[in-house]
Amino acid sequence: MHILRLFARDRAALIGLVIILFAILLTIIGPFIVPYPDDAFEANILSRLEPPSWDHWFGTDDFGRDILTRVILGTGNALGVAVGVAAAAMFVGVPLGLLAGYHGGRFGEAVMRVTDVFLAVPSLILAIALAQLLHAGIGGAILALSLTYWPHFCRNVYSETRSAKTATFVEALESMGAGSTRIVFMHILPNIASPIIVRVTVGLGYIIMTAAVLGFLGIGVPPPTPDWGAAIANSRQHLPEAWWLVSFPGLAIFLAVLGFNLLGDGLRDIIDPRLRRAR
Amino acid sequence: MSASDPLLRVAQFALAFRTETGLATVLDGVDLEVARGEILGLVGESGCGKSTLVRAILGLMPAGARVLGGRIEFGGQNLLDLDEAVLSRDIRAGRIGFIPQDPFQSFNPLFRVGSQMLEIMRWHAPPEIGRSRSAHRARLLELMERVRIPAPDTALKRFPHEFSGGQLQRLMIAAAIACKPDLVLADEPTSALDVTTQQQILALLEELAREMNTAVILVTHDLGLVAQYCDRVSVMYAGQTVESFSHKRMLEGVRHPYTRLLLDCHPDRAGALRGIPGIVPGIARMPPGCRFGPRCPAVLPICSTQRPKAEMLEADHSVQCWAVSGSIAARVPADA
Amino acid sequence: MSLFIVRRLLLAIPALFGLVLLTFILIHAVPGDPAAVLAGDQATPQQIQALREHYGFDRPILEQFIRYVSQLASGSLGVSYMTQRQISTEIIERMPATFELTLFAMTLATAIGIPLGVISAYFHNRWLDHVLRIISIGGLAIASFWLAIMLQFTFSMELDLLPVHGRLSQGLTPPPFVTGMIVIDSLMAGRLDLFRDAFAHLILPGFALAVAPLATIMRFTRAAVLSTLRREYVFYERAVGYPRLVLMGKYVLRNSLVTPVTQIGLLLGAILGSAVVIEAIFDWPGLGSYAVLSIATADYQATLAVVLIVGCVYALINILVDLVHAAVDPRILEQL
Fold first, then answer.
1. pLDDT of C70 strictly over 70
2. For B151-182, what is each residue's pLDDT tens digit?
């Protein structure tokens, strides 16, 4: 209850939560409420490049497709990729980080050296290169992003585990003869869950951003699937005539990333009191 | 001790902090006097307001603090009337030196100790020392010799983390007296150090203060230290001064039950007093009447409703306690 | 110190080798025939086979890997499938353009981000702080490639204030090659006209790249200043009367810079990453647009080369950042 009260007082985090809930809502009901469900994938040359109007709030693109429709449908795609990547990165990074942090030694060292490899290049460049090598397509993009992102997770969990390991309750469990797997997953994991949650929240925003870059470079979802990044890339050839092509997908990315960043900041402030005082 | 013209006089000083539930009084009617060249011990358990008082004298009250009343007179001037810029320029370091509690945390880790000490002298050195950097340096070197820092010349160029705690506190003493202040505030100067170093540091402080005729307020929770180094003692409890007396009354003449208990028991390392049951009340939950009442072995019915007044027992001894005033009142008719 | 640099360099090598291995495995683990991709849609099976033999794609993977690594060890990054030129030559030609752009962006981010962060902390929880925090949160959420296009649209296409793309207007010859960075070379050649033109070309891509790191630096600086202000040594520095401006501008600032400085390596990495897209948008002839070109033409040798080179540069940057960190914080030096 105390945490909820703190959260309710943090206006920025609430705004972030509202944005995210709205995005999730759009993902679920989007296909049923979009103004031109048939337009989404089909060209309609007669109405191409129309500026925003009552009929087309966000205007139409170079195939005559309704931009509002495609921005809404792109939400699910963006969230889906972000959640998929975060889940994959956690699935690999969390257990590895936990075990490496708890057991340390040669195994821990080896895991950390492997993460070094992935962290040796700025993550965006690694993601772009991997996505290209894995060939275009949504699967390749998700795999590339997951490969890029899991080491960050692993490192984070590793250092949290290292510090949790020295806690008295862990020593007590060890002296009682609890098995290491049990200690790691039943006792340490719940204790370091909060920083992981914060990391995921901020990470989701980061993944949406990176996925948009991949889409922009044409190594994300293949057309004609609606994608914010790809939409921005296509819009470039119609500047300066058609400003609405580029503006709305970009705003969508901005809002989605902003939502996760605000929520992540808010959660961090609640979870880490040392940082809260710095606000 | 001439009480008529003290160097520092704190009179009925009261201070409150703004909290979520309103104002909480942390200092309530503090009285204190220090004469020139006198070493005053300010004693009490942790959380009784000693450090807050020291900070208030320097004008460094935390955000949200509000002065409720009283005066802090220093050299005939009420420090509470001066604004931050004036205090910083005219009072701090130049007239009131400061020795912090934890020398490890109080030196800026990124700067050489010499440059930090020279920074103080640059803004506050009195005319007789001179204005030039070389004069300041010469003065520092001489002081470092006095506080027994080996190889002062190279020591100036070293960083704080290269010194031991005892050495850092010696440097702090040198810094505190560098600009020849009239008063030095030492806020538990030895609580971060080990016991053997404690004695050396305090002996050094006393020696230099006597030599330069500098007054010192030595804040501590250790009455044993006070007995060794102080001319006079003020005892604080829960934001109030409950008893003040000179060194010679220390052993036989103290009257306040709290002071007596302080003398009877030995403070442990955490600063809590083992022999006194209960704890110092939090600022939000002050009992009405005498604040020591709930823990007092000699408590009277009146203690829980009315606050005792300060009573002068002798010229060098005042006390705030119903039990003490009561016994005086009982004694008066018998003497008459 | 030099020992530290050598050790750090040696530590970077396994990671880079791992990177080569990883990318190599990926290329060969993934279904798809690089020779077929290279030959294009109209190629006959014979042509594809010829290419396969020419590049050794038909050899065992281990042999290919050893060949690739020994080729790297001899300093060659291979030959571009597209241009048939040495990739290392192409990269060296493009490197200065990327350095110019990223350094400009980093300078912009630091020069604006640090003062704004300090101001934000100084006005903690007042309206200016709130406005600056909203700006910094927004800055972190803007996709740099979108911002770049919007800037291009607004300032180049609509307002016609700044050039749309490239490093230099058409018809101008670059100054004699010294550093390869036109802004610097033109100044060294005394050609102010070239400098102005080149600088105008830098502004939009530089700003688009700078926004996210600027916001990050601002947030880190703000948090660092706020936490520094709570330190014991800042209290001590106030208690001994350091003037406010000296305290904030010299002592607090220096302590607060330690955290942002440690972030510069990460930020430069992020800038290098974003530069890939920004360079493509502004037709900036650097490493980033080379990477995009190699992606578009499926020239994976070139992509790998860019990744490796960026990895090396990134490792060097991080070593440099550690050295700067040690210069700012003397305590670090002991751990090196």
1. yes
2. 999 999 999 999 998 999 999 999 999 999 99
Residue C177 near chain B (CB below 8 Å): no
What average pLDDT does the segment C192-196 reach? 86
Residues 6+ apart with CB under 8 A from B53: B10, B13, B27, B30, B32, B42, B236
Please enumerate, as own/partner, the contacts of C291-298 that have beta carbons within 8 Å and a separation of 24 or more: C291/A125, C291/A128, C291/A129, C292/A217, C293/C82, C294/C80, C294/C82, C295/A128, C295/A132, C295/A217, C295/A219, C296/A218, C297/C81, C297/C82, C298/A132, C298/C34, C298/C37, C298/C38
Task: Collect all residues of chain A within an 8 Å Cβ-Cβ radius of residue C29.
Answer: none
Helices H / strands E in chain A, number of each: 13, 0
Task: Give me the phi and psi of B10, to 5 degrees please.
Answer: -100, 125
Comparing CA positions, the residue from B188, B193, B313 lying closest to residue B252 is: B313
Strand partners, B317: B245, B314
The distance from CA A28 to its chain's CA centroid, rounded to whole angstroms, is 18
| CA–CA min distance B120, chain C (Å) | 7
- Mutation pick from B119, B158, B162 vs chain C, by most beta carbons of C within 10 Å, is B119
CB C295 to CB A243 under 8 A?
no
Amino acid at the residue C134: I
Residues in chain B: 336
Q: Name the stretches of chain A with pLDDT < 70.
A: 1-3, 6, 39-40, 136, 272-279
ipTM over 0.90: no
Chains that touch C (3 or more CB pairs under 8 A): A, B
Structural domains in chain C plus CATH codes: 34-75 (no CATH), 90-284 (1.10.3720.10)
Reading the block at residue B113, the tokens are 């100790």
Tens of pLDDT, residue by residue over C43-56, are 778 877 877 777 77
User: How many degrees, rounded to 5, is the angle at CA B70 between CA B69 and CA B72?
Assistant: 130
Residue B268, pLDDT > 50, answer no
Neighbours of A14 (CB within 10 A): 15
| Dihedrals phi, psi of B237, to nearest 5 degrees | -140, 125
Residue B268, judged by CB atoms within 10 A of its CB (0-12, 13-18, 19+), counts as exposed
- Asked if residue C93 lies in contact with residue C286, where contact means CB atoms within 8 angstroms, the answer is no
The tokens describing B335, both together, are 């003497």
Helix (H) or strand (E) holding A59: none
Read off the pLDDT of each residue in B86-115 and give the average, rounded to a whole number: 92
CA pair distance A195, C11, nearest whole angstrom: 29
Token pair in block for residue A96: 């590895």
> How close, in Å, is residue C250 to chain A by CA atoms?
21
Q: B333: pLDDT confidence band, cut at 50, 70 and 90?
A: very low
Q: Is-contact B201 B173, C-beta < 8 A?
A: yes
C188 and A CB contact within 8 Å: no
> Counting Cβ atoms within 10 Å, is residue A205 exposed (0-12), middle (13-18) or buried (19+)?
buried
Residue B221 and residue B188 in contact, taking contact as beta carbons nearer than 8 Å: yes
Quick one: which of B175, B187, B244, B241 has its CA closest to B52? Answer: B187
From C32, C226, C280, residue closest to A135, measured CB to CB: C32
Pairing of strands B215-220, B183-187: parallel
pTM of the model: 0.83
Alpha helices by DSSP H, B213-290? 223-229, 257-264
List pLDDT tens digits, range A112-123. 888 988 888 888
Per DSSP, the three-state class of B12 is strand
Question: Are A258 and C138 a contacting pair at CB < 8 A?
Answer: yes
Q: Do C240 and B98 touch (CB under 8 A)?
A: yes
Q: Which residues of B touch C258 (CB under 8 A)?
A: 110
Q: Is C159 exposed, middle or buried (0-12, 13-18, 19+ CB in 10 A)?
A: exposed
